[in-house]
Amino acid sequence: MGYDSDYLDSSDPGSYEDKSGESEVDDAKRYKASNNCYCPNTQLEDFYLDLRFDDLKSFKHELVQFSIRKGFAFQYVKNDGTRVREKCAAKGCKWLVFCSWCSGKKMHVLKKYIAEHSCLVGTSKNRRVTGKVIANRFFDVINGMPFIKPRHLKAMVRKELGVFISDKVCRNAKAIVLRKLKKQFKEDFLVLNSYVLELKEANPESTVTVVSKRQEGLQYPIFQRIYICLIPIREGFMAGCRNIIGLDGCFLKGLVKGMILMVVGRDGNNQMFPVAWAVVENETTESWVWFIQHLSSDLRLGDGLGWSTNKVDMLMHLDRMRGLKRGTSVVEDLLENWPIEGWCCAFFNDVLKCEVIDNNMCETFNGVILEARHKAIITMFEDIRQYCITRIVVKRENTGKWKSSCGPRICARIEKERAKSGKWQVE
Ligand SMILES: [Zn+2]
């Protein structure tokens, strides 16, 4: 690809040149209003004269994004420390932009711009879409799938940016993201102890336990496990949740291998209530035992038996029924025809303790923390903690809107049962 001439006359169509370089803005049509400073956070519709940049780096960065959005490739005509002149890479196309240092404004200013292309814009090749550009743009995607295949990444870039990239660009992009992530993951582990101390200081009496191993020849201990149960969450569970918990484990998705184990309870409105979480090296009987031991002492589960059953009460009620007129035969008849293990919660076997027969609470929580599971360890814990705390606040505020003393889900449930029981008949 070539280009015809390096410089265009300001008399060319679409060309506006600020010849003075430092002159006051005087033409409302040619120059936009007073604040022409480039803002990296807002998408630039188009370049215009007198647009100001803090440095040439941000100008070049914007130019790459702009060329991707508009679907054309550009090439440098001049690129030194103080000025950058670029033109459309298509042969014969007049599109051109020139930005250089303006000593009066103490900024880099866009001094020449020919906005119209004489080529057919819409190319799918852009050499400026480098590994770095892809790494920035698709950081979260590559972070989520560090082993993504080049063909999948290429397809994604093609779909989102409309640009074809090579395998080499894909590899570079992945390498850049992984380098950044490795650094971040390493830094997180280095300050994990400080994070634990901070958590404990902010939430006294919380259980935060870290297990690490020392290995000969290594300066730092190697992280093995961590268990977190924060005091406000634990108290919330003990005070207002049902005596049912769900346990589950899922893989960490980031660079570090390992599992996150979690306990999710059920609140008074039959919604999930995450209680505690841990990161362990692997999902094994030993790691689960370690986790449950901590949990058992935190939630004062004891041996777990009798936690959600009340056989004594049930037997007392049956005795009272026996005391009624013809009661004994009714009770015997009842127990014979409908074994108590089949209809009384207190006599259910050890597996089933309430109507929750699946582990959807945990699956839901799994889904919520999906994104966090890609992140470095402290960032992940912070995401989870913030989610749980915010959730509690939101749910507490919602209780103010309740129309009765129990939650809307419970009211609906009672209503459903009431409607069903309306068809019953006592003979
Ligand atoms: Zn062009």
Automatic annotation (TrEMBL):
The organism's place on the tree of life at top rank: Eukaryota
InterPro entries per record: MULE_transposase_dom (IPR018289), Transposase_MuDR (IPR004332)
Biased composition (Basic and acidic residues): 16-26
Residue ranges of the region described as Disordered: 1-26
Limits of the MULE transposase domain: 245-295
Domain Transposase MuDR plant: residue ranges: 51-103
Protein name: Uncharacterized protein LOC120273202
Organism of origin: Dioscorea cayennensis subsp. rotundata (White Guinea yam)
